[in-house]
Task: inverse folding
């Protein structure tokens, strides 16, 4: 089968012919039709320790059909259209059993990092990771839903707790995850302030429903957020950039009892900058502020996201698609911050 292979840490992807993967008793073999391409993959294949062995086929945002199952599999059948959860978890520890599987105590790594992923014609994955795709949801949309859309659902609903009338600042609003957070915050009833630094990204944020645009090239982020809320501040700030500058600006933008939700990351190994930021403990205490780390999603949240797509209550913003052979070009554009919304590979 054709696959795009990562030969070594941080190396360019290579097109190779590799054997079709074999499945174990609890696995499913999936014929891949589409794979999302985002910053998570680009970061993780360059950070030591995330990829457990080389060569490795990356890619965790997948849509495809089950073609074979192991003898112990009962949750999917051949012919089912499916996407996959990103994390390899035990499904049995206290966190997995309380809908916090991203904190699994027996965590085994990530799809596309600890086992071969979706940048290939076929992939083998634990069947319990799979979620059925409802009829009416396109392959490309379903692939990015498993992370780029489901992650904002969790961040907005569970961490930011966005409710009707809340002012919500989305930082990195025109990116592949942030653009879906704009839509998700609107679904939760929020008034969205969309912050970015490119005209095309700001315009896309407006197109999908942002109420106010914050062009951080024009004046400081916090100053604009306060001006747009008559000095009160925002009820929640969700940061998909997570640099020192944006995180500190988000804290300064919060109203009393406001929530800062950290979704993005800037590993030193990839970006060459210090990923920490300063917190004034007295400010946090006096204003009763909250700081949340939003760590991916549950299997249930993936299913809920797919249902929202089926109902047309939001849309997947995929502005560029590429053939499998062009995966490295897609990665370059992501690294250069040159894409509006999400990119995807069309494989089937």
Result:
């Amino acid at each position: 089968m054709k696959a795009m292979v990562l030969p070594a840490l941080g190396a360019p992807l290579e097109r190779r012919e590799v054997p079709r993967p074999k499945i174990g008793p609890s696995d499913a073999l999936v014929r891949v039709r589409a794979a999302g391409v985002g910053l998570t993959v680009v970061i993780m294949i360059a950070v030591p320790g995330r990829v457990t062995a080389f060569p490795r086929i990356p890619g965790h945002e997948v849509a495809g059909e089950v073609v074979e199952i192991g003898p112990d599999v009962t949750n999917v059948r051949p012919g089912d259209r499916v996407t996959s959860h990103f994390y390899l978890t035990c499904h049995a520890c206290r966190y997995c059993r309380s809908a916090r599987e991203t904190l699994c105590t027996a965590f085994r790594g990530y799809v596309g990092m600890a086992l071969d992923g979706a940048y290939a014609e076929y992939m083998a994955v634990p069947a319990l990771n799979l979620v059925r795709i409802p009829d009416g949801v396109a392959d490309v949309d379903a692939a990015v839903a498993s992370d780029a859309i489901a992650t904002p659902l969790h961040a907005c609903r569970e961490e930011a707790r966005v409710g009707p009338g809340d002012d919500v600042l989305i930082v990195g609003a025109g990116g592949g995850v942030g653009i879906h957070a704009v839509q998700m915050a609107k679904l939760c009833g929020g008034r969205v302030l969309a912050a970015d630094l490119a005209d095309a990204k700001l315009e896309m944020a407006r197109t999908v429903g942002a109420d106010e645009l914050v062009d951080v090239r024009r004046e400081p982020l916090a100053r604009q957020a306060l001006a747009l809320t008559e000095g009160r501040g925002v009820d929640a700030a969700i940061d998909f950039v997570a640099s020192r500058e944006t995180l500190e600006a988000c804290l300064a933008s919060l109203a009393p009892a406001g929530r800062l939700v950290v979704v993005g990351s800037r590993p030193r190994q990839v970006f060459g900058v210090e990923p920490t930021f300063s917190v004034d403990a007295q400010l946090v205490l006096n204003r009763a502020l909250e700081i949340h780390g939003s760590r991916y999603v549950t299997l249930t949240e993936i299913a809920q996201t797919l249902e929202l797509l089926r109902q047309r209550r939001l849309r997947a913003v995929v502005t560029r698609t590429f053939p499998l052979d062009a995966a490295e070009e897609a990665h370059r554009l992501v690294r250069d911050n040159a894409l509006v919304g999400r990119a995807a590979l069309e494989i089937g």
In short: The longest strand covers residues 27-37. Residues 134 and 307 are 7 Å apart (CA to CA). DSSP finds ten helices and 15 strands in the chain. The chain has a mean pLDDT of 96.
